[in-house]
Specification:
By secondary structure, the chain is mostly helical. The protein contains 7 helices and no strands. About 30% of the residues are buried.
């Protein structure tokens, strides 16, 4: 099955956030270079504009990382933050950023995409963990869950 462009972009953003968690660049300039090199490596045949949505998601998630990580810590009961699998953190950071700041994306879409990413890239139990956190967080949002604004 062929993925949609948005799906390809979410996968790329999640992969970059996963990679970033092991070796985050120290400056914005290095981050910019790192992101450019990442996209040149993962898909050298495509023009960079294809991944413009992924870049928005990456920069947004990283710019809001502290706030996003506080949400994860608040709802990850019985889980020490440092022990959460880095791939699950990447998926959660991406989804929470979308729910927090991207009013053009219905929160239910972000949750469903996160669950699909966890099924494809994490272990079988991760979807319940991720859904548990995102399901609690969605109850705090002040906007419609199934429609974009």
């Amino acid at each position: 099955m062929k993925n949609s462009r948005r799906r390809d972009n979410r996968v790329a953003a999640m992969q970059y956030l996963f990679q970033w968690s092991f070796n985050p660049p120290e400056t914005r300039l290095r981050l910019d270079r790192d992101i450019r090199a990442f996209f040149e490596t993962i898909d050298p045949e495509r023009e960079r504009v294809y991944y413009s949505f992924a870049e928005e998601l990456i920069y947004g998630a990283l710019d809001h990382r502290e706030e996003i990580d506080e949400v994860i810590k608040r709802y990850a009961k019985n889980w020490e933050f440092g022990r959460i699998a880095k791939i699950d953190l990447a998926i959660l950071r991406l989804a929470i950023y979308e729910m927090m700041a991207r009013r053009d994306i219905p929160p239910i879409v972000s949750i469903n995409e996160a669950i699909d990413l966890s099924k494809e890239f994490s272990n079988p139990d991760a979807k319940r963990f991720i859904n548990g956190i995102l399901d609690q967080y969605k109850l705090t949002l002040d906007r419609p869950l199934r429609t974009a604004e």
